[in-house]
Design brief:
The structure is a homodimer.
Chain A: H1 6-9, H2 14-27, E1 36-37, H3 39-45, H4 50-62, E2 67-68, E3 74-75, H5 81-103, H6 108-127, H7 130-146, H8 151-173, H9 184-193, H10 196-219
Antiparallel strand pairs in A: 1-3, 2-3
Helix pairs in contact in A: 2-4, 3-4, 5-8, 5-10, 6-7, 6-9, 8-10, 9-10
The structure holds a DNA duplex (30 and 30 nucleotides).
Chain lengths: ~220, ~220
Amino acid sequence: MAGTADDTLRKIPSHELTYGRLRDMILFGLLEPGQPVTIQGLIRDLDSGMTPVREAIRRLTAEGALLPQGNRRVAVPQMDGSALEQVAFARLTLEPKLAELALRNLTPALIDQLDEIDSAVDHAIRAGDLPGYLRSNHAFHFALYEAADAPILLDMARSLWLRFGPSLRVVMQRGGAANLPDRHEEALAAMRAGDTAALALAIQNDIQQGIDQIRLAQAQGAV
Amino acid sequence: MAGTADDTLRKIPSHELTYGRLRDMILFGLLEPGQPVTIQGLIRDLDSGMTPVREAIRRLTAEGALLPQGNRRVAVPQMDGSALEQVAFARLTLEPKLAELALRNLTPALIDQLDEIDSAVDHAIRAGDLPGYLRSNHAFHFALYEAADAPILLDMARSLWLRFGPSLRVVMQRGGAANLPDRHEEALAAMRAGDTAALALAIQNDIQQGIDQIRLAQAQGAV
DNA sequence: AGGCAAGAAATTTGATCAAATTCACGAATG
DNA sequence: CATTCGTGAATTTGATCAAATTTCTTGCCT
C-alpha cells in the first residue's frame, strides 16, 4: 500500500459535504435573504440525512450565515445598513492584515498561481459570467489569505464573506458585470515588489469597491 | 390573555442549555487545552442527549472554541504564540470599536449598572476569587458591548473570548490575583464624560494588560 | 344572508432519542 | 515489525414526540 495519499483520498463524512454545499449556496448568493431554510427541505435538496443537515445549519448559524427566527426556524439574514457598516469595518481591518501576513510567505510559484486565478476573474468579468466571477474572486482572496498562516484571522474572514454572500444577489440582479471590484493587478504587482503597504492598500481598495457596490444597490430599491 | 409573558418564560430547548453549559466551561477555563472532548463524555457530564451534545460541539467548533483533530474527535485548542498574536490583534481592533459604538447608547442607568458589575470585579480581585473575577469581568465587557447595538461585531468578540478562555487557566494556576487587568474605573470615567477616545483607550489598555499576562505565563513554562 | 373573527383540527416541521453502521485506535499475534 | 482483530466512539438512519403554522369550521355581528 504505497499510496495512501490520505490528505485528499480520505472519505469525507456526510455532514462535511452537506455543510460545504449549503455554505456555498449562501456564499455565492443562491439563497434569497429572508427565505426560510427548512431542515426537511434541505434533506430533499441536498440529498442528505437529518443529522448532517441539522449540524450544517448549526455551524452556519454560529458563523452568522444563518439567523435564527424566534420560532425555531432559521433564515438567510437581511443585510441592512448597520450590518453592512459592521462587515465593512471588520473586513477592511482584517483582510489587509491577512494580506500583509501572507506576503512574508509568498513564493514565486504561489504568486503565479494567484496570477492564474486572476486571469479567470478577468475572463469571467469580460464574459459577464457572474457566478464564475464570484467563485474565482473568492478563490483569489482566500488563496492569498491562506498563505498568511493565521487560522484564527482566516476563520473570521470566512465568516465575514458568508455574511456578505447574500448581498451579492442584489449585484447579480442588477446585471452589470462592469465595475465589479478587481484591484488584483495592483495587488499582484505589490506582491512581486514585496511592497507590504501597497498590497494592503490594493486589498483595501478592492474591498471598499465591493462594499460601495452593495451600498449603492441598497440605497436604490433592491433591499 | 393578560399573562403570556412569553419572552422569558418560554422553555429553553435542551440543545441551547447544553451549548450554554459547554460554552461556559470553555469560556472560564474549566477545560484543559489539549484535553479531548467526547460526545459520550458530555452526555454523561452534562446530563443531555446525543443530538443536543452534537449540536453544541458543532456550534463551538464553528466559533473556534473547539478544534477538530484529524480523527473525528475534537479538543480544546492549545494557544501558541501565533494564535495569541492573532487574538490580540483582533481584540484590540474590535473591542475598542464596540466600546465607542456603545457610548452613543449609554444611559445613566446603564452606566450605574456597569459600575455595579465593576464593584463585583473589584471584590473578586480583593478576595482572590478567580472564577468570580472571570465571570464578572466578562459580564462587564459584554454588558458594555451589547449596548453598541452591533450584533455582527459582538458575535466576533464573543468568538474571540471563547478562543481566549482556555488560556485563562494558566493565569489561574499561577494563583496571583494581583495585577489582573482592571482598567474599568478609567472606562467608567470616560463613559460619564462622554469621552470616546478615552473610553477606547481604557478598553485597549485593559485588553493589552490581559494579553501581557498570558504572554508572560507562556514565556515561562506553563504552555 | 353574507362576511368576519375566534377557535379547533390537521398538517407540516423541528427536537429528541434509540438502534445500527462505520471508523479509528490499540492490543495481541504471527 | 507487519498484520489482524477487538473495543469503543463517532456517524448515520429511522422513529417518536412536541411545537407551530395552516386550514377549516363555527358562531357572531352587520
